[in-house]
Design goal:
It is a single chain. By secondary structure, this protein is of the alpha+beta class. Among the domains are: 16-64, no CATH class; 321-604 and 682-690, Porin, CATH 2.40.160. It is 35% helix and 23% strand. It is built from 14 helices and 24 strands. It has helices spanning 3-6, 45-72, 81-124, 129-208, 257-262, 293-296, 321-326, 348-353, 360-367, 371-384, 601-606, 622-628, 632-662, 694-700, and strands at 20-23, 28-33, 36-41, 238-242, 250-253, 343-347, 395-397, 404-409, 415-423, 428-435, 439-451, 455-461, 463-468, 474-478, 481-485, 493-504, 510-515, 528-534, 540-547, 551-565, 571-578, 581-585, 675-679, 686-690. It has a 6-stranded antiparallel beta barrel. A hairpin with a 5-residue loop joins strand 13 and strand 14 (474-478). It comes from Chloropsis hardwickii.
Length: 710
């Protein structure tokens, strides 16, 4: 045992490294260590000798281990190839000696066996009594000799194994130190090259100016920030980013922002963008996303209606697994009701509508004259939809077939939204949003999930379409995979991972966003998102960076250059950018949000009762309303009733399909009420799009076509 293990041994344990081993007579052994003594008795002298030999070997091993532990702190690791060869030399010598000892052991065993056979033959002869006792004693001595020689060989073999294991350990440590040294040398060399090139660029920039403006001799020279992240007292205006296809390490240099604005066409020799395009006073990028839309543009919009700011606190109900299991006995798996304990009082249609919480990003994107600048706002909007999921581990209610949800904020915020559950198996929801500020968004999302033991992967399938009315820019992207961890044991937490490719199908601009999955061993910021906006020719214009639960920033690219080649054979691209602008920042959660399912301000209003909505609206769903009120037992009963009612409708529809088939007629199945299926001209996919009629029916309050689902 090691010293660390000896501190946690059982009561009555003796440390062999400091123990005394004595023999009292032919069969007794005495073990003593300080104030503790054990007396052991063997059946015979031969067995006693075996025990003594084994204990002595164990004692020697314990002493060696103790000495090795005390010497490890002062030993130095081998640092050269000569040290490695010096290790192999003694090992080869030890191996050859061990082979010699093994040969001797075989000879001893062979001759010892022959000697014992001879002694056994002598015992069978008729000899005087004294002679028989002497022969017996000689036989025992021969047996002891053979045991001792075997123990010696085993000890030699153990020694060689120990030497080999330590040799492998030393070799691994040596190789690790060499690799660390090589990586450090490569990093220092790369930083030195980049630093030199940046200094040349900073020195050469004044000479590339138009000449009408002289640069002050006190212009700040570029300097690389220290690896420790120490703050520089110079203005930070220029940054360098590694391209997405390789390590996401960022290198930042400082420069005078006034110089960039004065120099006109500076960096024209190698620049891919002009600093004057980054208008710090008038650009759309400068408008704060924290201000309300009414304050910035909404003269034609009415003041916001006062909405509720809280809901009843979540009850502290313990989940009784037996109460769930006993209701499942004798039932089909598809008929097992899941209690509302796993839910939050919102439906999936309302969660889909919650993506519009930061709609002002699209309102700002309408003002952009450049399609690449507009792409930055669209990318920030696509990331903002995940900000509400960081604490929301509860499951939304599965919508019933034909269930709808409207969010009419046309007079307050300039948009109106409509969702409908268009399929139940597989579950699919269609969504359409119109904004009088100049954009339309539509999508059909199908949820696919896979349970993988410790976590649940949720994969939204389907494309999201966004079109701006004035420019005709049509953007398409898809959602990333959401993963719910610790499904069985532990605290639930959610992560987003994967890539989003946003494509402008008119200008062919692209934005590739990468959601970095969480890793315990990673040094990156958790929930990190990075990306690059490029035009149809593949030229990069903006760098996107941030986190999906906090904020997204955008940096205009001035210059790009190829850096060193990575260990994977990919060449890095270094982007020189202006200082980043914050496009989106998450709103703080309301007070007491932890007791209100971590709902945001918008989420608190989504299930607020409203008049004049369709009878199929999620606000009128009784089980969801009961759960929000804290009456969970009643909500479970009501939820089971609604699900059974939906199954009865499905069975009737299946019977109608069979009847139509027998009569040779076509049966269309369920037809969505407000949406229709069409082949999308951009993606070529079959998608449900809004066919109109809902808002007209609401104005007339004519809901006669709506099914009775509640």
């Amino acid at each position: 045992r090691t010293q660390a293990e000896m501190a946690h041994t059982c009561r009555g344990t003796i440390n062999l490294s400091t123990a005394h081993i004595d023999t009292e007579d032919s069969c007794n052994i005495v073990l003593s260590n300080g104030g503790r003594t054990y007396h052991l008795k063997a059946n015979s002298e031969v067995e006693r000798q075996r025990w003594v030999t084994a204990l002595e070997l164990a004692k020697a091993k314990a002493i060696r281990m103790r000495n090795n532990q005390s010497d490890d702190s002062g030993d130095e690791e081998p640092a050269s190839q000569s040290d490695k060869s010096e290790l192999h030399g003694p090992l080869k010598t030890l191996s050859s000696k061990l082979e010699d000892l093994s040969t001797c052991n075989e000879l001893i065993a062979k001759h010892g066996a022959a000697l014992q056979r001879s002694l056994s033959e002598l015992e069978n002869l008729r000899l005087p009594a004294d002679s028989g006792e002497k022969i017996k004693a000689v036989n025992e001595r021969a047996t002891l000799f053979r045991i001792t020689s075997n123990a010696m060989i085993n000890a030699c073999r153990d020694f060689l194994d120990l030497a080999e294991s330590h040799s492998r350990k030393w070799q691994r440590l040596l190789q690790h130190e060499r690799e660390q040294r090589i990586r450090l040398e490569e990093t220092i060399e790369q930083l030195a090259k980049q630093h030199n090139s940046l200094e040349r660029a900073c020195r050469g920039a004044p000479g590339l100016a138009s000449g009408t403006t002289s640069i002050s001799s006190t212009a700040k020279a570029g300097s690389v920030q220290s690896a420790k992240g120490e703050a520089s007292d110079e203005d930070e205006e220029t940054e360098y980013f590694d391209a997405m296809e390789d390590a996401p390490a960022f290198i930042t240099v400082t420069a005078d922002p006034k110089h960039h604005r004065r120099s006109g066409s500076n960096l024209s020799g190698a620049s891919e963008g002009h600093p004057e395009d980054w208008n710090l006073e008038d650009s759309v990028f400068e408008s704060s996303n924290q201000s309300s839309y009414n304050e910035s543009t909404g003269k034609d919009l009415l003041p916001r209606k006062r909405r509720r700011t809280r809901i009843p606190d979540k009850p502290n109900y313990s989940l009784n697994l037996w109460s769930i299991m006993k209701n499942c006995i004798g039932k089909e798996l598809s008929k097992i009701p899941m209690p509302v304990n796993f839910n939050e009082p919102l439906s999936m249609l309302q969660r889909l509508t919650e993506d519009l919480e930061y709609h002002e990003l699209l309102d700002k994107a309408v003002k952009c004259e450049s399609s690449t600048e507009q792409m930055c706002f669209v990318a920030a909007f696509s990331v903002s939809s995940y900000s509400t999921t960081v604490h929301r581990t509860a499951k939304p209610f599965n919508p019933l077939l034909g269930e709808t949800y409207e969010l009419d904020r046309l007079e307050e915020l300039g948009f109106r939204s409509l969702c409908e559950q268009v399929s139940h198996h597989p579950p699919a929801a269609a969504h359409h949003v119109y904004s009088r500020r100049g954009w339309t968004l539509w999508q059909e999302i199908t949820i696919a999930s896979k349970f993988r033991g410790k976590y649940l992967s949720i994969m939204p399938l389907g494309a999201i379409h966004l079109e701006f009315h004035s420019s005709g820019n049509h953007y398409v992207w898809r959602k990333v995979t959401s993963t719910v961890h610790n499904i069985i044991v532990g605290k639930l937490w959610i992560d987003q991972s994967g890539e989003i490719e946003i494509v402008n199908h008119k200008s062919k601009d692209k934005c590739q966003l990468k959601f970095t999955p969480y890793s315990y061993f990673s040094r990156d910021v958790p929930r990190k998102v990075t990306g690059v906006v490029s035009d149809a020719d593949g030229k990069a214009h903006y760098v996107m960076s941030g986190t999906w639960d906090e904020k997204m920033e955008c940096s205009k690219i001035l210059h790009s250059s190829h850096g060193s080649t990575s260990t994977e054979g990919k060449q890095k691209t270094v982007y020189q950018t202006l200082s980043p602008k914050v496009l989106w920042r998450k709103y703080p959660l309301p007070e007491n949000a932890e007791n209100m399912y971590f709902f945001s301000e918008l989420a608190l209003t989504l299930n607020e009762p409203e008049e004049r909505v369709a009878p199929t609206d999620s606000r009128l769903r009784p089980d969801q309303r009961l759960m929000e009120s804290g009456r969970w037992d009643e909500a479970n009963v009501e939820k089971q009733r609604l699900e059974e009612k939906q199954r009865a409708v499905r069975r009737r529809r299946e019977a109608e399909a069979v009847e139509a088939l027998e009569e040779g007629k076509d049966y269309e199945g369920y037809i969505p009420l407000w949406f229709e299926r069409k082949v999308d001209a951009v993606t070529g996919e079959l998608i449900c799009v809004y066919k109109g009629g809902y808002w007209e029916a609401k104005d007339k309050q004519d809901w006669s076509m709506c099914p009775d689902i509640f």
